[in-house]
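Same chain as my last thread, 226 residues:
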Amino acid sequence: MLHAPIGYGESAEMYLKSIYELMNGSQVVPISVLAERLGITVVSVTEMVHRMQDQGLVEHVPYKGVMLTHEGRLSACAILRRQRLWECFLFEKLELPWERVYDLACKLEHAAGPEVTEALAAHLEEPDRCPHGNIIPSAQGEVIPSKDRPLKDLQVGEQAMLRRVDPSGTASMTYLAEHGLVPGMIVTLEALESIDELRTLSTGSGNVVVGRQLAAQIYVEVEADE
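reply #2:
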């Protein structure tokens, strides 16, 4: 069973979770990208990465970035399991807004240990995805491979199902919720502006314009990819 990291603190937990999400499999995460994600300076991130490397949680690759060690990945999975289970609870049981449960769960994820986490999982009947469509790691740290790809890679004319959203701020999540861009929605890329990369998506209820940043946070599955 996964165990939450002990003695790392909330700050280190945020780093572990963010690196895991940005690695998207196995790629090295540039320090500048991690700093942007966390909203802090590159200098501060570099200092924290060095401390986490001393703890055996990450590997710093000079001039390239940072990646998780095996222990770091397991710790990150424990954090993500807690957070995404809390998202499910807040959304399904307390019926809180889809666009707000991520931020709320981020606060709760630091307060629960393995016993509470697994009791929560049992209460929710072991969900495999959070309300935003992201896979919930198993209690052993296993993650089901996903066949989705970023919306930004969709070609004009292609139709796809929205599978998951990488949450980033209540404002962007509210925009997606207001336009029905949630997991399960079928969209077609109608147009792509070459200069500003604005994408026009057609949905069952009309057209929605999505910018470059949001397009990178949305993952879709095209029928041919299945």
